[in-house]
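Course exercise 7: structure representation. Students receive a sequence record and must write out the corresponding structure in token form. The form below is the worked example handed out in class, using Oligopeptide/dipeptide ABC transporter, ATPase subunit (332 residues). Read each field label carefully; the graders check that inputs and outputs are placed in the correct fields and that the protein name is recorded exactly as given.

STUDENT ID: A-19
EXERCISE PROTEIN: Oligopeptide/dipeptide ABC transporter, ATPase subunit
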Amino acid sequence: MAEKILEVENLKKHFVLEKGVFIKKNKIIKAVNDVSFSINKGEIFGLVGESGSGKSTVGNCIVGLYKPTSGKIYYKSERIDQIALQEKETKKYRDGIQMVFQDPTSSLNPRRTVRQILEVPLKKYRKIKGRKNLDREIKKLIKMVELSPGNINKFPRSLSGGQKQRVSIARVLACDPEFIVLDEPTSALDVSVQAKVIKILNELRKNMELSYLFITHDLSLMRNIADQVMVMYLGQACELADNESLYNNPSHPYTRTLLSAIPVVSEAEEKLKPKDTEVEGEIPNPSNIPDGCSFHNRCDKAFAKCSQLEPEFIEIAPGHFVRCHLYAKRGE
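STUDENT ANSWER:
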């Protein structure tokens, strides 16, 4: 049986919009609403959804940037969420969890060179001392992310977007993590640069036995790299399956819609795309989520029950879960 490195149980994160000039009464935004999943050691777990789906909030709760409203988070079987532990107690568990952010420009200190950026975690987490030892480790990190040694003494402003993101990855590796949350790490990069960064991340995962939570809005990106994929919509998981099941048998209307929107270059790929699902309108305001199924007002398969009763997250095949009334009888 595969060893689990991370488990999330019934995670909720709600934000309160306090009343003011434009808001007559307090409103609760259910950014994450009862989400559960687990990630095996050495696995890439893809978390996919539109803006406002809650996917990044899940990542922020895992690394401790947000305190969950409720729910449990386990890292290597130890509970690490801030509900259970005080900040000092979580530190020893969180040292093994790091995060790569979407925008490398804002996450790198513009006043520090690449050398100085990498020195900080090497000293703090690996306790490396001495100029020769630091130089040796910095060169190793630079090589691992396929950067030229000539970039070591440069400031971030002198680097391209792809180079900055690779420095961000090197900084995370300097912390010696086992689990990395990747929050849209390629969305700000050109397609050609995206492919290079993905290649580097995949090689690092294999060579260093890392595990990833890969957060993205691009479902096509996960097709060739993720072991499991969860699709989120308005704070909830609407589908979860292994890679092959999700892409070969997408079941939730929202998942099918996302897949149908992916550009293809061959007739064979075009034949595989779902063609029976259409979506209307925009994603609703998170502070005013529709009753029943949160997707019913955009779904062309919706019927009366969809607007009245929230569907359960049911297993329709081994390891394949869907939140949709269309599959209720199959899961019973």
